[in-house]
Amino acid sequence: MFVLTGRSVVVTGGSKGIGRGIAAVFAEAGANVAVAARSASDIDAAVAALDALGDGKVIGVVTDVSDPTSCTAMATAVVDAFGGIDVLCANAGIFPESPLATLSPDELAQVLDVNVKGNVFAVQACLPALIDSGRGRVVLTSSITGPITGFPGWTHYGASKAAQLGFMRTAAIELAPHAITVNAILPGNILTEGLAEMGEDYIAGMTRAIPAGALGKPADIGYLAAFLASDEAGYITGQAIAVDGGQVLPESPDAVTP
Question: Among 98, 168, 172, 213, which one is least packed by beta carbons within 10 Å?
């Protein structure tokens, strides 16, 4: 229904997991995709795989979103390669486990630096190009954890994901006069490399708690990101949308039909 061919898209944290799923959907839709991540080897592997999916260009940019200078360099590289930036998918994030009782200042700072400041710095760096686009789109990857639910060991992560939504709402107001929309996707449990590391028992338990009866796929997040990036979604801004197979709906585990 909507066309993304030729759009210039930046996906931070795009070399693995949800970010790679987002990048793949845009590549398949014919967009020019820039994969930004910290690891050059992960970027190279992602670019090689994504390059075969569509007719658009795919590039990689080594980026540390917690560093505003690195974000500025990222935006410059993408504009040089594609001529502009139409869509920023600010997806980069980390989720190290640490109980509240032993959470260190450094652990807290690291999560906030990447998950919160990284969003702000990436948007600031891409903003001139998004304004020039005339149809700029910002899509943040938040989470159900923090804004809607909680989970032991992730107080710092939950706080960072809730903070993203506060940023989103005011950014949406400030950028609306430039025809830029700002929205957030709240993934539930999506089957990625990081989630696989949580172990089979964790995955089985989470699957039982999801009314849809299965964990999500990275592409499920990509499909919503692609819609929010389209012209047809131009009247949607400042919204947080859960993609979780209904995980947040049950009042208790007994409400989920086996």
Answer: 213
State whether residue 9 is helix, strand or coil.
strand
Q: Which residues are within 8 A (CB) of 240 and not within 5 positions of it... i.e. 6 or more apart?
A: 142, 147, 165, 168, 183, 184, 185, 186
**CATH class of domain segment(s) 8-255:** alpha beta
> Closest Cα partner for 72 from 131, 117, 125?
125
Residue 222 has pLDDT above 90, yes or no: yes
Which residues, including other chains, have CB under 8 Å from residue 185's CB and lie 6 or more apart?
A: 139, 140, 141, 142, 221, 224, 225, 228, 240, 241, 243
Phi and psi at 182, nearest 5°, equal -135, 115
| The pLDDT value given to residue 257 | 72
* Catalytic member of 157, 202, 223, 235: 157
Q: Is 235 a catalytic residue?
A: no
Q: What is residue 240's predicted lDDT score, i.e. its pLDDT?
A: 98
